[in-house]
Amino acid sequence: MTTIVIVGGTSGIGHELARHYAAEGADVVITGRDASRAATSAKEFDGARGVAFDLTRPHEIAPALTGVEHVDHLVLTAIDRDHNTAADYRLDGAQRLATLKLVGYTEVVHALLPRMSRDASIVIFGGLAKDRPYPGSTTVSTVNGAVMGLVHTLAVELAPIRVNAVHPGIVGDSPFWRDKPLDAVVSRTPLGRLATMADVVDAVAFLLRNRSVNGVNLNIDGGWLLT
């Protein structure tokens, strides 16, 4: 049986990934910051397990994952949002996001590496703020740009384990975006629609499955960056 660990699987795209792999009969491990929420989310899927830890407290990650004995796929989808500018720089928010996505993500890989098979695969979530910054994205753009470097170095260090990333644009039906006015973004998207959570799940599944795709940073935006 395939075992997949989804870090940040209690809501949004991570939860849809858990649904996808549970339907395929995989052994699904869902992680979240809150133990009760992780357990409740796992109960939605037959045989899934919930594990709790906070990526911003990296020293707690390895002990929390001791019960995971084998890993075929690892998806690092947990995110936090930080509206920060150089003129009005909030250190706590910046440190939290940088720790979560860079130190926390890497510590999860470090903790699980001894239990990963040689043909295992990893997908890391970044975002398109790396290419199209906006006022307040100082930390978000910087961290998502660093995810590209993290993918490259891990793909070399962990070989033959494969490491790739997805960088979604605005995902129109995700909990964060679905109730916001997005007509202006849709009008600038060549497809005439926004990416959906199902689109992102499909992209992640492809990266986890395809044995010749490695070190790739895949944008999922319907061509929005071209306009």
Could you outline the blueprint of secondary structure elements for this entry?
Layout: E1 3-7, H1 12-23, E2 27-32, H2 35-43, E3 49-52, H3 61-64, E4 71-76, H4 91-112, E5 116-125, H5 138-157, E6 162-168, H6 183-187, H7 197-209, E7 217-220
Parallel strand pairs: 1-2, 1-4, 2-3, 4-5, 5-6, 6-7
Provide an overview of this structure.
With 227 residues, this protein is an alpha/beta fold. The chain has helices at 12-23, 35-43, 61-64, 91-112, 138-157, 183-187, 197-209; strands spanning 3-7, 27-32, 49-52, 71-76, 116-125, 162-168, 217-220. A 7-stranded parallel β-sheet has the order 3-2-1-4-5-6-7, sandwiched between helices. The longest helix is centred in the middle third of the chain and has 22 residues, at 91-112. The radius of gyration is 17 Å and the shape is globular. The model has no long low-confidence stretch (mean pLDDT 96).
